[in-house]
Amino acid sequence: MRRIVEPAVYIMASKRNGTIYVGVTSNLPQRAGQHREGIIDGFTKRYRCKLLVWFEMHGDMESAILREKQLKGGSRKKKLPLI
């Protein structure tokens, strides 16, 4: 069976005005659940970024990764209008 790939860039937050995290995935519902449950060790688990506050779907993973890099390279101030 073929796996369905739906590339997305997303932002997780710890709380209102809290820590934010930008990521990219091919399966947004699964990845958001992993962050919520704290299954994956790393930044989002350490800073409790469990709330999906923004996402953007892409037609291919390459464009999603480029967008993720663009967002990660920007300041917090530039990310806040998205959420």
Gap between N and C termini, in Å?
A: 36 Å
Enumerate the spans where pLDDT stays under 50 for 5 or more consecutive residues: none
Structurally, the number of domains stands at 1
Mean pLDDT comes to 94
Number of helices: 4
- Gyration radius, rounded: 13 Å
Tell me the overall shape: globular
SSE class: alpha+beta
Report strand order across the widest sheet: 2-1-3
Biggest sheet overview: 3 strands, antiparallel
Order of helices and strands: EEHHEHH
Q: Would you count the extended β strands for me?
A: 3
- Which range best describes the helical content: under 10%, 10-25%, 25-40%, 40-55%, 55-70% or over 70%? 25-40%
Share in β-strands: 15-25%
Organism: Erythrobacter aureus
Family: Belongs to the UPF0213 family.
Protein name: GIY-YIG nuclease family protein
InterPro entries: GIY-YIG_endonuc, GIY-YIG_endonuc_sf, UPF0213_domain
